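Category: protein sequence paired with discrete backbone structure
Discipline: computational structural biology
Format: plain text, a pair of labelled lines
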Amino acid sequence: MKTTEIVKFLSRQDKWYLGGGNNLSWAPTFPAWLHFPGLWDEAIYFNYSLAPLYTITILDHLGHNVHLRLKHQLWDPSNLERHFSSDIQKLEIIEKNVCLPDEVLVSELEITSANNAEQTFHVIAWTVQENHRTEGIKSISDIKATKDGVSFHTILSPKKRREIALLCELSISNQSDSFCVQSSEDTVIQPHWHLTPFYNLWSDHLNNTINVSGNDKGLIFMGIHKRVVLSPGSNKKLVVRFRASTNKLQGYVQGGFGSSLLQSNKNWKSYFENVPNFACSDEFFTRYYWHRWYGLKLMTLPRGETNYSHPAICEGIGYFRAPISYSAHCHMRETRWMTSPDIAQGSLLNFVAGQRDNNSYPGYIDPHGDREEMFYHANWGASVLEVHRIHHDQGFLDSAYKSLTKYCEYFDRERDSEGSGLYDIHNHYETGQEYMSRYTAVSPDADKVHWGEQIRLKGVDVTVYIYELKKALVEMASILRRPDRERGMWKEGYKKTKASILREMWDPHEEMFFDINPQTGERTRIMAATCFYPYMTDIVSENHVNGLRRHLLNPDEFWTPYPIPSTSVNDPTFSAGGLWKGKRMNCPWNGRVWPMTNSHIAEALAETAIHFDSSLRPIVAEFIRKFICMMFYDGDVKRPNCFEHYHPYTGKPSAFRGVDDYQHSWVVDLILKYMAGIRPKSDSIIIDPFPFGLKWLEVSKIMIRGHSMEVRIDEESFTVRVDDRPPEVSVLGKPLEIAI
């Protein structure tokens, strides 16, 4: 697929998210005002709410509000286009909204008249901001207004978090004809003209004054006005811009009509140029592949003078717009395929920079400060090696090794004080998997606790992560030529953990791995999706394959129409609809399907098929297909999504949460590794596509350690090209190994 076509390929009518891979994004969870021109609903700067932004009102020559009807909406990653009309005045308005990489939101309007007579209109771009005092400091200050625009200084101060100061400006193209800033007592904050003080002060223009005297508490309305004269059949073009920045603004943003749209489109096309090009005969896979890359850029934060010393991916929109350790290791697997390793490496290095005194990592990274209570478990070790296999970088590996050595020491000290080789979960939040019977099995009040050491559970998932970490540290130590004693220490550690998992967690009768209650030393016998995580690793052998088949592929346990539920179907607490003790929960793990878990399970199935049972290969393909196709609204190939969790029987998402494009899993990595079959190793690349039943597949611009690769699949055969070498050909089921 040509990268110039991707932006248009992703277009649809039901989305509205705007972002440019920067600190500012416009992705309100439940927008209430999409039918009004402008961008009134909430924006996010870093992870701080900035609301409202602005709306655009049109008055006729008598000062009457021109009521506009939203006729049509079309979105793509670079642009939200909306068509409005007014039947009485016979106006047609095309508005194009973009978010530029320099933290500017723009609305470009083309206003066309179909009236037989000349008409005069007044276009007013305006906002309202709440003003209050906190310890003597106004939340809105330093207001300036001229015909160039209005600017103000705002302090965002959410509860229990450090405040940040933003400089904001609102401007209109080629200067305004008038402006006004007016303070007011409180009223409802909505984009209705009649709610503004301008409604009663209007006299063919705004009054060119700044009036913020009186009581400090209340609202401040700010508006800029442009007079437009339309002759029959003519049109006028206007540009409204809103900029927010933590830095001093250097004059109002300039640029002619159309320039912002071109800049946004160029920004997205440039991004897509720097990821592998992919297309196949199944549109579900092609569309989801590119939709996933869009989501990763939408959630990208650049490096800056904050806790974000490296670029990274946020977990999601709204509250989740921050690097979060539970998902950061997923982002490393996805973004390692980019031409540059910066984001993949940065997804770890921000946590390295924020490593705590006890050597744990923060769970959630705000731009400033630390949420000391928050911690999440993550598979850091395996993800570091996955990045290194594509981008050899001794400096990154050295930084990771030194930090992860301390992180591992934290786990041995704080999470396995008895030296069992198995590791503790302290509360149901830190796994990212709340409301499950696996926790109440060791404490009936586990679902009521918060952060900190509230319970103790030797978790299969957590222990597998540390096993993977110690194995990775052995390989990293070898590459970095660390002393033999270090390699020996890590090797001894992972062997101990492997033996403990097989001895304590594996139940030979049930043929399943279980969490351990450390108070009794007994297995909990709670069947959760995390019980399959050892199958991602070399912990298992052919002796464990029957257990995978017996439980994972059992429709009465995990193999639902949309697999797999986070807790077994036969668990007494199971709820496909997300109810826990009769109440719908935001983040229930007692039966919903979570993409995060599915990414792990895909790896578990694939590793088992590769090493022990090739008859599972079609099942791997079936599972990944079901996983990806679940993430489309009502099976509509034009409408991909990624919510937090889904119904295991209907595939319906947690739409009530309003959190789409949630980057809490890895999908690009699964497509490239198992569909295209590209599995980088330390000194070679294995090409081994799984049988997805595709007529054709093409992937190019794969860059691995300085080598360029292309793969083409034609039904049962595939062709591989590396650099300028002669192509190599094989058939599905007969892998190629290429030395590099």
Remarks:
- The radius of gyration is 28 Å.
- The longest strand covers residues 119-131.
- The mean pLDDT is 96.
